Amino acid sequence: MAESEKILCIEQDASVVRQLQEILVDRAGYAVSFDADPDMALASFKDNQFDLVIAPFGIGGLDGLELIKRLKAVDPDCVIILLEKNSHARLLEDSRLLGAYDIISNDTVPGRLLSVVGKGIELHAILAGSRKFAAILKEQNASLQKQNLLLAKRIDESTRNLTRLYEDLRSTYMRTIKALAQAIDARDHYTHSHSENVAHIGVIIAQEMGLSARDLEHVRQASELHDLGKIGIEDRILTKPAALDAEEWEQIKRHPQMGAQILEPLTFLNDVIELVRQHHEHYDGRGYPKGLKGEEILLGAQIIHLADAYETMRSERAYRKVPLSKQEAIAEVKKNSGTQFSPRVVEAFLKVVDTL
Ligand SMILES: [Fe+2]
Ligand SMILES: [Fe+2]
Questions:
Q1: For a tag on the chain, would you pick the N or C end, based on fewer CB atoms within 10 A?
Q2: Which domain range does residue 314 map to?
Q3: What is the Cβ-side half-sphere exposure of residue 275, based on CA atoms within 13 angstroms?
Q4: Are strands 6-10 and 52-56 parallel, antiparallel or unpaired?
């Protein structure tokens, strides 16, 4: 038997004390504290750690059930063996309900007493171990939760920083490309502010047609960048006052595709890029670069195409010094509805043209 296992015996009967001393200490080698006074015994129980308590059902005016309650209040895992002296059967049952481990009679054979005590001590070790384990788990859980919160906070902060950086980067890109598009417009003083004007007209038509905020933004961005591909066209062609020959016209027709290619690495502009590529497609399929027809052409591109054409008609050009009047330009748009222009875009345009 392990000497470290400690038992508290609360007993006033000298013959019982002698008997227990003989069995538990002399024979089994347990460390047993004997106490005749229940109050002193309880104080000792509070100050020392005992693996097991042996007590009679009632002692020194203290009811057996009350003793169990007080012991359990100090150590909920404490294992209590009651020594029974002709006690009432119901009281014994109540004591079990309150947590007494076993009830044995004074004249129990030593072998049975040792077996009950041994098992009781094992039970205490298991109960104490699992309580300790639960406490460690609870502590670790709390610490993990704290770390999780910290981690979530850091991830949140990092995500916000990254989002801010990404937004900064996007707007820097957009500003750079817009500046480039404006520089291209400015190569020819006739087209100065052309893209900006197209964006203004395009957004107003798009609003009239009830496009979502996201699609409106795409129309605005694509309008600002629609002629970016003109960067690859020679100045003499862009500013030629006379009609273009076939080869020069081929160069001009490449600019939507070229603009899209320049923007392609900027994947966040994917939707905008397609609008740039399609901005010279005609509703009847006679536009370029692909000859798309009707609703094969993205609605945003249909809108930009009309805005671009109207803006061009209303501006001075190298090949046409006097711009068309508003009435002449409107008449031209109406005339080409269903051929060059989408009828529903023309319809929306006619509703807002007075505000342009
Ligand atoms: Fe264009
Ligand atoms: Fe244009």
A1: N
A2: 187-355
A3: 28
A4: parallel
235 and 107 share one domain: no
Residues 203 and 348 in one domain: yes
213-225 and 299-313 helices cross at what angle (nearest 10)? Answer: 50
- Quick check: is 157 in a domain? no
The reply to whether 213 falls in a domain is yes
- The CA distance from 306 to 3, in Å, is 100
Same domain, 115 and 205: no
The closest ligand to the CA of 311 turns out to be: 2
CATH of the domain at 290: 1.10.3210.10
CATH number at residue 35: 3.40.50.2300
Distance 231 CA to ligand 2 centre (A): 12
Q: Which two tokens stand for residue 79?
A: 């294992």
- pTM of the predicted model as reported, rounded to 2 decimal places: 0.60
Is 230 among the catalytic positions?
Answer: yes
Cα 84 to ligand 1 centroid, rounded to whole Å: 106
- 213 Cα to the center of ligand 1, angstroms: 24
* Strand ranges for 57-191 from DSSP E: 79-84, 100-105
Same domain, 83 and 215: no
Residues 89-103: tens digit of each pLDDT: 666 677 777 778 888
**Ligand lying nearest the CA atom of residue 313:** 2
Please give the single-letter amino acid code of residue 336.
N
Q: Are residues 261 and 329 in the same domain?
A: yes
Q: How far is the CA of 181 from the centre of ligand 1 (A)?
A: 12
Q: How far is the CA of 37 from the centre of ligand 1 (A)?
A: 106
Task: Examine residue 144 and state whether it is found in any structural domain, yes or no.
Answer: no
Q: Which two tokens stand for residue 170?
A: 């996007």
The domain tally of the chain equals 2
Catalytic pick among 230, 290, 293, 326? 230
Ligand in closest contact with the CA of 190: 2
pLDDT tens per residue across span 281-340: 999 999 999 999 999 999 999 999 999 999 999 988 777 778 999 999 999 999 999 999
> Is 177 a member of any domain?
no
Q: Is 209 helix (H, G, I), strand (E, B) or coil?
A: coil
